[in-house]
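Question: does this match?
>
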Amino acid sequence: MAHAGYDEVLVQLVDYVYEQTSFDNETLRLARYCLLDSIGCAIAASTDSDCMRLMQGAQFSQNDNGVPVAGTALKLGPVEAAFHIGSMIRWLEFNDTWLAQEWGHPSDNLGAILTAAAWQSLMDSQSSAMNMTTVLNTMIRTYEVHGVLCLSNCFNALGIDHVVLVKMASAIASAQLMGLSKDQALSALSNAVIDGHALRTYRHAPNAGTRKSWAAGDATARGLQLALFAQTGEMGYPTALTASRWGFNEAVLRGKPLNLSRSLSDFVIKNILFKVPNPAEYHAQTAVEAAINLRARILAEGFSPESIEYVRVETTRPAMQIIDKSGPMKNSADRDHCLQYMVAVGLQTGNLTINDFHDPLASDTDLEALRLKITCAERPSFTESYYDPEKRAIPNSLFLKCYGRDEEFSETIEYPLGHVRRREECFDALLTKFHLNLSGSPLRDRSAVLAGILTSESKLDAMTVTDFLKLFSWN
């Protein structure tokens, strides 16, 4: 049903998030693993000095009655808490991914989801505290809104960053969790639609930088802030999409309508892409896996990384657009979006870890020499299988020539470990990743207990969201 003349797409999104139907056990299981993975990424970011230095600039709302921030000893007001949680989940380029016409990370919305649920529980003394069953249900729906909007709406071609969808999805999720009416949710969503939207400048050379690590935190916090405004009675904008000249469709999408290409269900979380075991931009996941495999093969034949003459990577068009880079690598954000750098690390070390985007490895002259030997090109058939809805492949082929050997080594991998086609393989790897992510934190000795809680319906689902966040805060 329409609400106060709002654009149909906005109404569809809000109606879906506000539905009360439940999800099956497999969908809820995946949601728990998405939560486990995201929280683990946030805890790992708590040990990153660049991340923590930035977070110190957004702690003005500290108070004993605030939202506990995972990976810290802080309790903050809702907007700053959402910024912290969202930024820390995203910081290390290691949280779950979604690829289509637009690219994105649905777990970016957890900054708003966890904060809105906790804030509502803290503010509403008349009702029982919100439990994690409610959080998981909203999380699944928010993944769906974010991911389905990615399927057929392309912002990157317009120079607009994909965090526009984080802002929109987080606004609806926050409104629903805070008990707002649907009309209030539409107010929040319409304000998110007409907000200023980030450019992709910070994701690409020559300006690639750490803003790509906090842009999603900024967007999820903004979505929550707009829901808080709506809670006060702030007005909405019913034709935010379709208004002539000034609406989103004309002003941002250049005349193309924002659209939903499929009905909303649980498609996205069932097909979510996990990053395991390497923190590589997702289009590089299979390239890094292939590089690690090739290293073992050349070593077995008596060659070394220093004996490599050249490496040719055949990849998809999106990979060429995002991570095909040459020239100096200025910072870790530059390196984790450089296909050549990540392949070089895999070939030289047999792995790719969070630390590998920093010194001392980043300054290694042998690694730099190897990076310069790597070239990339699009293979059209790979791009076709990438966009094929029945395949959704993320393929890469590596061709490697060593001095003194006439034939090339080659390795092709179509689906990374975290892909739905390799789903059962990845659950144990996600647990291993979680333990590694906590290994440098004060929670290292409790990682097994915490993983057990996160993956258990009986232990997690009835827990209050504030108690959940306290599990991952420094007490």
